[in-house]
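re: that chain from earlier
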Amino acid sequence: MKHIATITALSVAVVVGGLTAGAAVATAAPTGPSAAETIAQLQADGKRVIINRVGSGPLDKCTVTDVRSVVLRPQARTVTIHGLPDLEPIPTVHVNLKC
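^ sequence. v structure.
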């Protein structure tokens, strides 16, 4: 009986400790550039940006949750000098927002 009480007390302590640590992480304020600044910087770097948004709030209230690069096949574009296709990869990133 004594072992069951000890195990139960330890289990409760672990669960409460996990909840407390999770609450501390959840209340931490986001740092870094805004969503609009992040998107503008990626576009200025020559990347095609695809935005995945969760929620319907305005962009200035959104936070960036993830930025992932995507490997795409090169896109053919015609070169005006000789008319032959030039395969040029287009760097693309997905920006996930929570609004």
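The chain has a mean pLDDT of 73.
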